[in-house]
Amino acid sequence: MESEVSRRTFIQQVGVTLAAAPLMVSRAHGQSPSDIVNVAMIGTGGRGASLLESLAEASHARVVALCDLDPERLQKAAQMVEKRNAVTTHDDYRNLLENKDVDAVVIATTDHWHTPLALAAILAGKDVYVEKPCSHNIHEANLLVKCAHEHGRCVQHGTQRRSSATDIAGLRAIQEGLIGEVFVAKAINHQRRDKIGKAPEEPPPAGVNYDRWIGPAPQRPFTQNRWHYNWHWFWEYGGGDLVNDGIHQLDEAIWGLGLDLQYPQAILTSGGQLWYDDDHETPDTQMIIFEYPGKQIIYEMRLWTDYKMEGHDNGTVFYGTKGKMEIGRKGAIATTVDGKVIEVKPEDYGVQAEDIVNNFITAVRHGDPSRLNSPIERGAVSTILCHLGNIGVRCGGIKLAYDPKTETISSVSDGSQANALIRREYRKGYELPYRG
Ligand SMILES: NC(=O)c1ccc[n+]([C@@H]2O[C@H](COP(=O)([O-])OP(=O)(O)OC[C@H]3O[C@@H](n4cnc5c(N)ncnc54)[C@H](O)[C@@H]3O)[C@@H](O)[C@H]2O)c1
Hints:
Layout: H1 2-13, E1 37-42, H2 46-57, E2 61-67, H3 71-82, E3 88-90, H4 93-98, E4 104-107, H5 114-123, E5 127-130, H6 138-151, E6 155-157, H7 165-175, E7 182-190, H8 210-214, H9 240-256, E8 266-272, E9 285-292, E10 295-302, E11 315-320, E12 323-328, E13 331-336, E14 341-344, H10 356-366, H11 376-394, E15 399-403, E16 408-410, H12 415-420
Parallel strand pairs: 1-2, 1-4, 2-3, 4-5, 5-6, 7-10
Antiparallel strand pairs: 7-11, 8-9, 8-15, 9-10, 11-12, 12-13, 13-14, 15-16
Helix pairs in contact: 5-6, 6-11, 9-11
The structure holds nicotinamide-adenine-dinucleotide.
The site of nicotinamide-adenine-dinucleotide has 28 residues, from helix 2 and helix 8.
């Protein structure tokens, strides 16, 4: 496919060495791709519902099984799928994974279940689409990459900007010199995320297996804030808006600067809660600087403000010697030093792209992880950088250095505290199915 070839050529041009990705594909890849990929979805909440819509539009995918711990959501999702074909429903993912007809599993649960489910799915012989962030902590992300490579599975990470034709065109324009030499990118996450108040303890909703929802995390009483969506703001389940929305802008900065699969030499962090006075554990204000040899990425987050204050939507800004390029939901817009504003369109650069879901299905049909736009090894680096940014803030704002070979953090004011956050304790009965 011409568009995919040109995308890959472009990626190599921006300095991403595909060879650095140690993919070991164990399956013999088919000469003719399988026609329909049977998909199972685990987690049918806000994101799950939107992925179901994308899967319904994908011509080579069929959703055959669904799993959620909330029976209401499960039923609603089943009704959606049953308009097209029959689907089985499960509240225990292990039953779903036993189904030999399932080729691929889409995971859109709470973050703290992502790696445990993805590992179990790979071990059951399935390809996996795992929502971002791929893990709850650094160690899990590394395990997931290792397991995916060992089993030669397609594992797509839910950072969909890498599948956006506009973003690819914007980065191609940068590559062709539109804004000169580029040294710095800023990942901007400014938005209003309202206070959540203080929620009282109460019994979990009827029919919900809350013990399994908590899963590997410590046992806690149910509250509405520790439940659907708001779990993002508790360290035991999520990682705040850095891993929620910020990861998209940060991932784009890494990609655009050609820093995929690399770790920064140092990370400076600052942040905390300047506005929240409620159940939130995660910060509302955060600044991180990732230092690479000759390049810098700045992440800036303010959750008590509005998109419009910066004059543009959330996104990533690349700064060059001849101008800047803003890439976000408004498109890819360059402003040159002489004040010219240029909107970069995919057609101007001959860019076409499959969306992230179709791209996953294509890779699975061909049994070929190298076709993925957001392969797990790149997703893992973006996820780990977010975790490092959070660890820095949780340790009071420090300068970190992360050694991916030994999986340790050093050069910090309190190294022992930072290193303790690299992995988690798993509640009995919810240990990881793969230890590397
Ligand atoms: N790529 C994107 O743009 C994008 C957008 C939104 C959300 N997301 C990601 O999608 C994920 C889900 O977010 P959300 O807003 O839909 O959350 P949500 O709380 O609305 O939904 C999560 C669902 O997972 C279910 N669940 C949790 N653990 C389970 C388990 N062990 N087995 C089965 N079901 C389980 C819950 O019951 C719930 O219905 C998050 O990781 C989030 O980061 C990605």
